[in-house]
Amino acid sequence: RPVALVTSGGTAADLENQSVRCIDNFSTGLRGAIAVEQLLQRGYAVVHLSRKGSAEPFARALSQYLGLQQANHGLDVQ
């Protein structure tokens, strides 16, 4: 079974030894999360390293599902 390592989300690099200033990018991690989804569907074992708060694999589908569940709450819809 092939293995893939996917990194996603923003990164920060210190400009000084004392970490007073840094350069930061604010990537959402969406492209990496989608890559993980696609690799898993193709049979890969995937290690996903992401920044806290970045997009997570399958989160888009799950949030849509949960939104539907909340919309159907109390309407006796299964």
UniProtKB/TrEMBL annotation:
GO molecular function terms here? Answer: catalytic activity
Q: Kindly give the InterPro entries that the UniProt entry links to this protein.
A: CoaB-like_sf (IPR035929)
Any one GO biological process: coenzyme A biosynthetic process
Q: Where is the signal peptide?
A: none
| Protein name per its UniProtKB record | DNA/pantothenate metabolism flavoprotein C-terminal domain-containing protein
Q: Which source organism?
A: Phaeodactylum tricornutum
